[in-house]
Amino acid sequence: MRVYNTLNKRKEEILPLAPPEIKIYVCGPTTYNYIHLGNARPLVVFDTIRRYMIYRGLEVKYVQNFTDVDDKIIKRAQEEGQDALQLAEHYIEEYFKDADALGIKRADIHPRVSQHMTDIIVAIAGLIDKGYAYEVDGDVFYRVRAFKDYGKLSGRSLEEMLAGARVEVNERKEEPMDFALWKASKPGEPYWDSPWGAGRPGWHIECSVMSMKYLGETLDIHGGGNDLIFPHHENEIAQAEALTGKPFSRYWIHNGFITVNHEKMSKSLGNFFILRDILKKYPADVVRFYLLSTHYRSPLDFDDGKLEEARRALGRLKTTENLAREFIGDGELGGEETFEGSVLSFLQSVEELQKRYIEAMDDDFNTARALGHLFEISHQINSYLAAAANDTTSRSAVQQALKVFRELADVLGIFMDKDQDQNQMVEKLLEIMGDLRQLARQEKDFALADQIRDFMSDNGIRVEDTAQGSRFLWEQLPAAENLVNKLLEFRTEFKKARQFDRADKVRDELQEAGIAVEDTREGVRWRIVDA
After folding, report:
1. Which band of pLDDT confidence, cut at 50, 70 and 90, is reported for residue 165?
2. Contact assessment for residue 415 and residue 403, using Cβ atoms and an 8 Å cutoff
3. Do the Cβ atoms of 402 and 321 come closer than 8 Å?
């Protein structure tokens, strides 16, 4: 396996310090809002890298943090009149909903800044003792010039960074490029006691401390988006290596931006798309396929049309899987088969394509090229099915090919679990029902609101009405079929009452949830639309 190492600006073979274990730290979100599509890209990229390493026999120890103490969180909490830590915890819970929907495997450890204050304070004190940091009126700053290798990750000299970077104006700093390790508390902000007074940590120190706490003083891999190279990762290196005198991370992996009209997607620019809004329109595996269809280091310009292309392309792969499963059937296939002739050639072609897939992923995790080989396997399976006799030998051969096909797709995470798909659909249908009940209450149609409440109660769902709308609580999700049929029943009543806006709203929202509705002479029909 070779990866482009940002530190050395070249592809290098991945050689773990203590094989077969490999230790990976990836910077997680600052939890003050829902994640957007740009945030989702590193989640999918590094989840796929982790999956592939496991597929190749490595034992991955994976740590991803949550920044739950930060200026942005405090500002948002003050605007909304909330406790900052409670707001952060809320968005951590929402993060997991979105990450789970995308098939992101949970990290082995998800450390939070708020739970590591003692570790952070000890590290800052160590940097002061070693002459790398200094305290001024309750603030502590890192002395950048004291670390001779500063700039080795971003490849810029200190003078270049001084000339080109926007730095916080603070006359108490020794140098403009010095950065905060500890910030004295201001009125109304959360704080922790320290040797320098009440305050909270700066952004950069948290990742140095938490990564070394769980993975040791030298990591195998540190990852994140390109926007973190400078100053965040540069500062992490300066902090960690000043403390230990050892290399902080042997490999640095950075994914490219998602852009909108070739401009970086970000909350500050206002050109971002909330992931869960996208997931209302497109299945999670389609979004994941879209994010992996471009090499992780290349920029990816957001475009609805490309998501539609991803839907159709993934649909072709799923069709192959479904056709192969139907061909194999449910019966027992017996023991080992001896293959020859065209059957053997078919399996050899699949095996060769599997090798090419591995070669693509071994070459800096080239998912775009790997997907191309997966489509070639799909073509081989489809061609074989078109001509194969329906006998035990052919079914066994297809079973072997399908096993390879599914394993390679699962590395990319693009064949979502059917139960997970079903749960996501039910949650979308419940959102539609909640929107409909909120509309009924706003329009003082209390009969409809009560019908929805009673239907929910009959299906084991408790309804709570809040200022933001109806909230549903359940112990077990209801059947999707029951929800669709009830919504279509409401739609029929709306049409009879000539409430066409309501009827169209139900139809359109069902369509967004993946349910196609068709009016026929025999009545209304519906079907689930595959990716």
Report:
1. very low
2. no
3. yes
